[in-house]
# Entry
Amino acid sequence: MPERPRISACVITLDEADRIDDCLASLAFCHDVVVVDSGSHDGTRDLAAARGARVIEHPFEGFRAQKAFAVAQARCDWVLCLDADERVTPALRASIAAARDAGFAGPAGYRFARATEYFGAFLRHGNAYPDRVLRLFDRRRGGWRGDREIHEHVSVDGAVQVLRGDLEHRAYRSLDDQLGRYRRYAAMMAADMHARGRRGGLHNLVLNPAWRFLRGYVLRAGFLDGWRGFLFACMEADYVREKFARLVLLRKHPH
# Structure
């Protein structure tokens, strides 16, 4: 009987001492765990090492580049990539184990739903769910490709299969944390769009945020998540508005 494929888990970190332990605990079924840290000062590296991870320090050059570097350090060809604020649920772990026991036959990668915890409950509707992400893949046939460093994603050469079970996403420590993250992402996205020749206008400031809210809250039934769904939809719309406001300003005042 052929040996079951082995899995390397890859995680990038920066000051994640309050979350890294739970993340790595959920990856205990992996044969190899790589944590690439970009200069934490809160004990993240020590906590990761205590969990048995191989901890590698590497300067941060962008989300995509950092994750690609982590994958390159893996000892196994099949890799499972998580952020420090994510956890593999028991149901997802069982699905991954079943696919591994079958030899990962066929697909070059696997997607699964990601459920975001939002102030005490998981969002189950709207733009937040199922939010399927491709995180388990054969690195010989794919990886963190492209040159965009924000909202990065994996692509593979071959079929992709969907696994049952959720990846838990405990993204925001507080509303201030969410707002701060959105501001950083808006600035990065605007700079990337500007560099690619995209030009924003008044219509983007009006229509794009409205569409993001309408799509998530109404068309994708975000209202079923109650006040959390409404707040999440509002924050998303504000993020889109700031992204295009920054893009407009880059066009009018590039320096």
In short: The mean pLDDT is 95. Strands lie at 7-13, 32-37, 54-57, 78-83, 86-88, 109-116, 133-138, 142-143, 155-156, 160-169. The domain at 7-169 is CATH 3.90.550.10 (Spore Coat Polysaccharide Biosynthesis Protein SpsA; Chain A). The first strand starts at residue 7 and ends at 13.
